[in-house]
Design a protein that fits this description.
Blueprint: E1 16-19, H1 25-35, E2 41-44, H2 46-62, E3 66-73, H3 77-88, E4 94-98, H4 101-111, E5 117-121, H5 129-134, H6 141-155, E6 159-161, H7 167-174, E7 179-182, H8 201-206, E8 211-214, H9 216-219, H10 224-235
Parallel strand pairs: 1-2, 1-8, 2-3, 3-4, 4-5, 5-6, 6-7, 7-8
Helix pairs in contact: 3-4, 4-6, 6-7
The structure holds orotidine-5'-monophosphate.
């Protein structure tokens, strides 16, 4: 595997997280090599984690990449606390839990003093209002995201996952020092797939987010490196 570049603080590569949602560790490693120095931060989710991807987390970290482990934990408090404690030993930068108050408090306990930054997933970007209604939530999505962001800050969570469309209300709920991380990003004209609350890379940056998460627009492109470079150019 190639080694990660060390971008300057102002370099947009620090703010682009590429979702490695690929079928196997072998294909994920080949993708990292194809993208080369156009990315320095990768996300590993269910698909890879459940097929040998935890070893890849360690290889990526060793090669100098930042890693976001996205398992969206949500269970009874004791199980979440223990799970976060175990994941904290992997040396990742970010890990995710769902933004339920009991879950978030347990995750903060499991993280201890020097673990990874815990990100709380508010309302999935594949949900529109009809999906939230169907799931039994009485609130408009914007209000539910803001409520969960406030609860995350109260629980001591380090960052929020939401749509960039909600960045302003989330920022006022969490203050300047916690992070806003936004999937549901599509360059203008790209296929949105199952995403519903979508913004372009440029619009997300203007909205004041800290990191964007981009998967298929890069990994399913005929030229993943060129796709990543185009997104970086749009991010400024
Ligand atoms: O937690 C996440 O990363 C996440 C939260 C969310 O609300 N929406 C969302 O799409 N994601 C993840 O972000 C990535 C987006 O991938 P693409 O839609 O292919 O760009 C996927 O790996 C999702 O699992």
């Amino acid at each position: 595997m190639s080694h990660a570049a060390s971008p300057a603080a102002s370099d947009p590569r620090n703010r682009l997280i590429v979702a490695l949602d690929l079928p196997s560790v072998h294909e994920a490693e080949a993708m990292v090599d194809r993208i080369g120095d156009a990315a320095t931060f990768y996300k590993i989710g269910y698909r890879l984690a459940y097929s040998g991807g935890l070893a890849l987390v360690q290889r990526l970290s060793k090669a100098g990449f930042k890693v976001f482990i996205d398992l969206k934990l949500h269970d009874i408090g004791n199980t979440v606390e223990d799970g976060v404690r175990a994941l904290s030993d992997l040396g990742v930068t970010f890990l995710t839990v769902h933004a339920y108050p009991q879950t978030m408090r347990a995750a903060v306990r499991g993280r201890g003093g020097d673990g990874p930054t815990i990100l709380a997933v508010t309302v999935l970007t594949s949900y529109d209002q009809a999906d939230a209604d169907e799931a039994g939530y009485a609130l408009p999505i914007a209000d539910l995201v803001a409520l969960r962001a406030r609860q995350a800050a109260e629980a001591g969570i380090g960052g929020i996952v939401c749509s960039a469309a909600e960045a302003a209300s989330v920022r006022s709920a969490i203050g300047p020092s916690r992070l806003i991380v936004t999937p549901g990003i599509r360059p203008a004209g790209d296929d949105v797939g199952d995403q519903k609350r979508v913004l372009t890379p440029a619009a997300a940056m203007e909205a004041g987010i800290d990191h964007i998460v981009v998967g298929r627009p890069i990994t399913q492109s005929a030229d993943p490196r060129a796709a990543a470079l185009a997104i970086l150019a749009e991010m400024g």
